[in-house]
Amino acid sequence: MLPLIHWIRRNRPVSLILAAATLALVQVVLWQLHEDGLDSVPTIMTTAADPTIATLNFTPPFHTAGRHIIDAQGVPIKLASINWYGASDADYVPGGLDVQHRDAIAALIRDLGFNSVRLPYADEIVTNNPVINPGVIAANQDLFHNPVLPGAPLRALDVFHEVVESLTSAGLLVIVNNHITQATWCCGMNPCDLSWKNDWFGGDILCSVPQSEEGWMRNWEMVMSPLVSNPLVMGADLRNEVRGLWGTMHWDEWADAAEKASERLLALNPDWLMFVEGISSANDLSGARARPVQLSLPGRVVYSAHVYKWSGWGSLRPFSGRSYEGFAATMWKNWGYLLAEEIAPVWVGEVGTPDAPSKGDTNYWHHLVRFLREVDTSWGYWALNARKATGEWESYGLVGDGWDWASVRRDYRLADLQRLGREEGQAH
């Protein structure tokens, strides 16, 4: 049988498998919350259930129409994404490659019910393209056998592109994300990593990884050029959580840069979608009303928001402590209006909460899932990973140290995400 990617390239519809339930267990979350959701944490009970499998057919390439992402046959699709990080961090490669083969991780993502992956990278893996420590890809020894360059050292971009190939061969869409400049955990207060460039304050001298706007765009071209013929590479999430120094980034400045980078990438492949995050750590897309991102090709812009419990900039009460009405009002103001007014699609590219939730975590998550269900938009969960590059447990992760089906954390988060992923659209 031909690999799936060859089958896709013959322009047949792509069939993605969305798992509607876990193989052995689902979690039933009993929300015992009062009006503001702060009086108790959920009681979690496990029950056995038979899996129900649903399919979603779509045909690349994609474009946008109003609030929807549309496939080549005019069918709206909703992204149910997972973030798989690591190429943006100190090991320079996606996490888990020391434990499982990349093909096995791709299959696990698909079987958990996700149809797409947000795959972050750091500019450092492009500008330096470091040689990879064999230990961090111990379960992927086949990567060392390069028939083109026998004996050549394995570098970060080599691994990144092979991971993309594994994901798309499993039938998953990939959105490549420029996450950070220096490869490290995001996001701190290092001024060198606050935006897509750091030369405006002397970063070319002060920063470990100096970067100009032109350098940022060249890096994008180097990352994406090998992917132009892969139809399941959906596009580019141009920069993670643009914020400036102490939240000083203006939307107009970021929109200008996003347009420049988008035009460069669309020159490589005019079918790609350009994902443009909001400012204030991707919370705020309100500026897109007066100053939309406009490209030479229509139907290419998808806006992206991030929503966590600590979000809610400009308020003394973060989302962990809001009523649903207060939470929803901010969502409508920041990005929901783009959907309601049929301006553009919105992909909520990062949401997440820990496996052992506090009252505030529970309140935020309950409100978020309700709002995502009501507006029926695309989303991405942070994250798949078991641990951070430091070895610290990733409490937001959905897998354990085995990076396999047996180690999946079958809790309230996965149950909610699987329901969101299989629900029919409610908003039009």
Give a written overview of the molecule.
- InterPro entries: GH, Glyco_hydro_5.
- GO terms for molecular function: hydrolase activity, hydrolyzing O-glycosyl compounds.
- Keywords: Glycosidase, Hydrolase.
- Belongs to the glycosyl hydrolase 5 (cellulase A) family.
- By secondary structure, this protein is an alpha/beta fold.
- It has one domain: Glycosidases (TIM Barrel, Alpha-Beta Barrel).
- It has 11 helices and 15 strands.
- The strands form 4 sheets. An 8-stranded parallel β-barrel has the order 8-9-10-11-12-13-14-15, surrounded by 4 helices. The protein has a 3-stranded antiparallel beta sheet with strand order 5-6-7, with no helix packed on it. It has a two-stranded antiparallel sheet with strand order 1-4.
- The protein is globular and about 60 Å long.
Question: Outline of this structure?
Answer:
It contains eleven helices and 15 strands. It is α/β, with parallel strands linked by helices and 428 residues long.
